[in-house]
Amino acid sequence: MDIFFANPNEVPVPPEKMEIRQLTATPYEDSKRVSIEFEISPFQKRPNIEIRVFNQESQLVSSFSIVEAIENKMSFTIHMREPEPKGEYQVDMELFYSELDALDEQDESPIKEILLENKEVVASAKTVFQISHE
To answer: b/e string for 33-65 if b means 16 or more Cβ within 10 A?
Structure first.
């Protein structure tokens, strides 16, 4: 399968050379949603991505996964799973590969479980953001 990127001057890299170039988190004014944007290296093989958001007590308050990404720049809006989000939050991002051949062998297991059991993390990044009520 051919993969095309917007900048033809950037050479797609193999999994072992993958990098997270940028990770930002910007809360919306309503304090209930956060814009997560990231850029990764152009890739030869589609990576999987796991994003998790933790509050000050290290509790998971939001997360999402991307299976075999098709673009190297993406933006998502996440919803905070807290009644009154406030304080400092940490966003953890992992870029990883999994052997999807395991799907055939474990057709009863959820896809997320299969991906995480067989994952090989090639890059990770963290960022923080603040939510304050004025």
So the answer is: ebebebbbbbbeebbbbbbebbbeeeeebbeee
